[in-house]
């Protein structure tokens, strides 16, 4: 994957030869496109290992509502240009702002900075969680700090063999953001989450897979192609059912059993009233692959 600054260049360079539709992020730090039923968003600051920026946040704010409203998008893949996923916050920029006693945002109060980070977290991690379509974080390389937090906000995670995952916050004297404290315990348990946050070990892709942080590890060679194919296979499944499954599971951690059962029952009847369900039943009887239309 070659990092470039053209809005569409990341998609056309990453998947050469594909005819992709543009997904307008309005930014160059986060670029997007749509291939079939898969929307792709890619961090595009390879010169700083795709560290976060105001342009990245604005890109998510612009792109995610478009994706949510597009019935032809069945799956979203979040990835990165230049061989990295996302290094999190730009530590060099943080250090520069501290020189001479400055703050991270010059001239801003603590209250302003708190409000700013809350807005950024909601526009990325919370928005990915709320997005109706399944979200897959595809890690071609390192995911660190808030970059790892954003990957954890996805529904599923796949990575290249060379990928490294690290919480990194304790290494810079910070407590963590973008949902790390919420997502990690749900994936690996409270004690292991605390270990990962306190000690900040560098996890290989295989270690992260064995720990349950990754759903699949793909070969380094042609990772981009493999990741897209992985997402396309998921996108070939009944999209309405996938959306209700995501909604059901997201809800389950916050409600009592009866509320979960009631919501499940409603979703089950709704999905079984779709043309996709009728097609799947017919395909089963006829011993063929179903052809889902999202209706």
Quick overview:
Helices cover 47% and strands 14% of the residues. It is of the alpha/beta class and 295 residues long.
Plain-language structure description:
This protein has 295 residues and is of the alpha/beta class. It folds into 2 domains: 9-235, 2-enoyl-CoA Hydratase, Chain A, domain 1, CATH 3.90.226.10; 239-286, Lyase 2-enoyl-coa Hydratase, Chain  A, domain 2 (Orthogonal Bundle), CATH 1.10.12. 47% of the residues lie in helices and 14% in strands. It contains 12 helices and 10 strands. It has helices at 9-14, 54-68, 91-98, 110-130, 146-153, 180-188, 190-199, 205-211, 223-235, 239-252, 257-271, 275-286, and strands spanning 21-22, 30-35, 38-43, 75-80, 135-139, 143-144, 156-160, 164-166, 203-204, 216-218. A 7-stranded mixed β-sheet has the order 1-2-3-4-5-7-10, with helices on both faces. It has a 3-stranded mixed β-sheet with strand order 6-8-9. It starts with 8 loop residues before the first helix and ends in a 9-residue tail after the last helix. The relative contact order is 0.11. Mean pLDDT is 91; it is low at 1-10.
Helical amount? 40-55%
**How is the biggest beta sheet arranged?**
7 strands, mixed
Low-confidence stretches: 1-10
* Principal-axes shape call: globular
* Gross CATH architecture of the largest domain: Alpha-Beta Complex
Overall mean pLDDT stands at 91
Distance between the amino and carboxyl termini: 35 Å
Instruction: Write down how many β-strands occur, each being a DSSP E stretch of 2 or more residues.
Output: 10
The CATH superfamily of the largest domain bears the name 2-enoyl-CoA Hydratase, Chain A, domain 1
Structural class: alpha/beta
Any idea what the radius of gyration is? 20 Å
- H/E element sequence: HEEEHEHHEEHEEHHEHEHHHH
Q: What is the strand content? A: 5-15%
> Helix segment count?
12
Count up the domains.
2
What is the C-level CATH assignment of the largest domain?
Alpha Beta
Order of strands across the main sheet: 1-2-3-4-5-7-10
Say what the CATH topology of the largest domain is. Answer: 2-enoyl-CoA Hydratase, Chain A, domain 1
């Amino acid at each position: 994957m070659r990092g470039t600054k053209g809005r569409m260049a990341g998609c056309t360079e990453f998947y050469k030869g594909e005819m992709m539709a543009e997904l307008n992020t309005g930014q160059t730090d986060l670029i997007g496109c749509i291939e079939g039923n898969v929307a792709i968003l890619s961090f595009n600051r390879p010169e700083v290992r795709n560290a976060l920026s105001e342009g990245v946040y604005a890109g998510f704010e612009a792109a995610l509502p478009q994706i949510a409203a597009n019935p032809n998008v069945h799956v979203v893949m979040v990835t990165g240009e230049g061989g990295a996923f996302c290094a999190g916050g730009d530590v060099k920029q943080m250090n520069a702002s501290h020189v001479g006693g400055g703050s991270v945002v010059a001239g801003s109060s603590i209250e302003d900075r708190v409000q700013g980070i809350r807005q950024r977290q909601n526009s990325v991690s919370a928005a990915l969680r709320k997005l109706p379509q399944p979200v897959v974080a595809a890690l071609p390389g390192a995911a660190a700090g808030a970059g790892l937090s954003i990957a954890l906000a996805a529904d599923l995670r796949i990575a290249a063999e060379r990928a490294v995952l690290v919480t990194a916050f304790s290494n810079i004297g910070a407590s963590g953001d973008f949902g790390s404290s919420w997502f990690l315990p749900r994936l690996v348990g409270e004690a292991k989450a605390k270990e990962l946050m306190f000690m900040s070990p560098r996890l290989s892709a295989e270690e992260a897979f064995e720990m349950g942080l990754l759903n699949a590890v793909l070969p380094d060679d042609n990772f981009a192609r493999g990741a897209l194919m992985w997402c396309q296979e998921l996108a070939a499944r009944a999209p309405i059912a996938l959306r209700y499954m995501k909604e059901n599971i997201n809800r389950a951690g916050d409600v009592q059993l009866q509320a979960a059962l009631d919501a499940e029952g409603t979703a089950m009847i709704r999905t079984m009233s779709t043309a996709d369900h009728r097609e799947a039943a017919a395909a089963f009887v006829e011993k063929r692959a179903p052809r889902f239309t999202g209706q």
